Amino acid sequence: MLVVFVILMHVSQHASGVEVYEGVESVLLPCQLQSLLPDPIVVWSRFDLNPTTIHQHQDESEPYVQNQHYSRRTSMSADALDTGDFSLTLNKPRLSDSGNYTCTVHDSGYEERLTDVQLQVKEPYTFPAEAWIILLVALVLLVAALSLAVYLRYKTITVSKVKVKQGTRSVKLPFKTKVQQLDNITVEWNRPEPMKVHVHQNDGVEQDDFYRDRTRMTEKPLKTGDLSLKLKYPCYRDSGTYICTVHKDGEIVAQKVVQLQVQVPLEVVEYGEWAKSLLLPFKVQDQLPEDATVEWKRSKPKIMMVHVYQGGEHQPDQQEEYFRGRTKMDDDPLKSKNLSVRIYNSGYSDRGIYVCTVHRDGVILMQKEVLYRIKGQSCQHSSEVRISSVKAKRTKLHYQIPATLLQDATVEWSRCEPKPMKVHVYQNGQDQPGEQDDFYFSRTKMKKDLLQTGDLSLTLRNTTVSDNGIYICTVHRDGHILARKVVLLEVKVQQEEVEEGVQSVQLHLQSSVQLPEDATVEWSRCEPKPMKVHVYPNDQNQPCEQDIVYRGHTMMEENPLQTGDLSLTLNNPTDRDSDFYICTVCRDGDIILQEVVQLEVKGTRWYLISILTFVSRQS
């Protein structure tokens, strides 16, 4: 009964998730990554919670918002970023921890969802009184099983896992046995392919050609019992299962299984955004077979065949059209041992992860990954913060690129925050105002000679706080992005400053866009509590919707939706009126315009009281 339960636990972890009982010390949520990344950030998440982040792990300690339900209960291996073992340990699991956990890795703008683990935390089982008798019987059976295990100890097959990076000098496949009387015994290290890796018999050695001069065992292994195998210069092809069998006169005395994982290194290359060419390096030490095939592919962000060398010749017909005529390798890369490839006329769309694979007859002999990214740009695009004043009549978003990239290209300025909008489109040699969002119609301008100068700067007229957001300029041709820049525009808030005691103050606001007649204008403030200062719907003032504090103290001009003058007059301002005032124009729930004006009323009341108190004390 106990044995059956353990088997079910094992199957559930590999099939669909992990099951544990509440009260256990900890539970492990598995996540593995074979290819190592240079600067990864590993995030464990539960998307049914808020915040969603359960645990975050990276080289440099960066602050992040963790769900407090998991505070001080999660951890990952200290060498996780080196080994690729991103498994998460969750201490003292609770019933409320049941749910779907997602392991995601981020690196230089890339994001890959590695695994989803369904965790189910069950209530602990409580034994009824009669169950103790069954438990006692189970313990007796367990003692018998342990006795049998001791008997079978020397014939048990154990499994070890070994990880190593490609390029290291050697790796050890461990196997130490306490089997006695090892005289006249044969030791064989094999792979299931089948392939003989190393055979030790009567001080003689027999092995497959692929492993010749690459394996070694300790001196007199049959006397010391150390049957470990040392494998030199491990490569991608060496990954797999290794079985060590100790036998005598046809009878197996002991066996050991070792799973070797040779991790492909990820090399990072960086070039300027306008580099004439880029080199993806790959030089090897071993002589490769003359009939091997060399393939360069781009795996991210989109799988594409970059270059193929096969049958002693380069194969341009197997290339993706996008790379045809733009790549070059050595005339005979297998002979020169230089498998590097150079890509000419590089651009923004060439960024990504490239994989070089050397194979023969379906067997991978060697592999390497190279990450190409734009120099100095961790997010794969240029970025800039542009700060402008709300009183500025024009704001310029700068962007300059080489004019050679603009032939037959489309230039598009768009906005992604707070909602997606097309700001300006230049196509077929002219502006395309019909592609613009209405909010920017007749408010944007680009230079007419941009194809000759490469100046893609955008001038935005009558900027207001509503223009705050992220702007993206994208240059693309035939579906391929040639260049991109992100600009964060921050328009400073308009400020009004008066002395307490003045008769009135006006919060100036002039709309630069045509407003619909059925829109609603609402002035409000947030501190010390949310209050409606003034409301103007459907061409009628509505004092009943005002906060009682402001009734009879505010005024707007007549027909503000027609004139665009949304200014608010506040009578008899005091220091308690100092705050940020928000003017929102909306229709049917959609915000058309929103501006912020800061009012500062300098108080004099307490200053005068202090003077009078001081004078009275002196007298």
UniProtKB/TrEMBL annotation:
Coiled coil: none annotated. InterPro entries: Ig-like_dom, Ig-like_dom_sf, Ig-like_fold, Ig_sub, Ig_V-set, T-cell_Activation_Regulation. Its main location: membrane. It comes from the Eukaryota. It is found in: Cell membrane. The keyword Glycoprotein applies. It is a single-pass type I membrane protein. Keywords: Cell membrane, Disulfide bond, Glycoprotein, Immunoglobulin domain, Membrane, Receptor, Signal, Transmembrane, Transmembrane helix. GO terms for biological process: cell surface receptor signaling pathway; cellular response to lipopolysaccharide; immune response; negative regulation of T cell proliferation; positive regulation of T cell proliferation; T cell costimulation. The chain crosses the membrane at residues 131-152. Pfam families: V-set. GO terms for cellular component: external side of plasma membrane. Residues 9-115, 378-475 form the Ig-like domain. Gene3D superfamilies: Immunoglobulins. Residues 1-17 form the signal peptide. PANTHER family: BUTYROPHILIN SUBFAMILY 2 MEMBER A2-LIKE-RELATED (PTHR25466:SF14), T-LYMPHOCYTE ACTIVATION ANTIGEN (PTHR25466). This is Butyrophilin-like protein 2. The lineage of its organism: Eukaryota, Metazoa, Chordata, Craniata, Vertebrata.
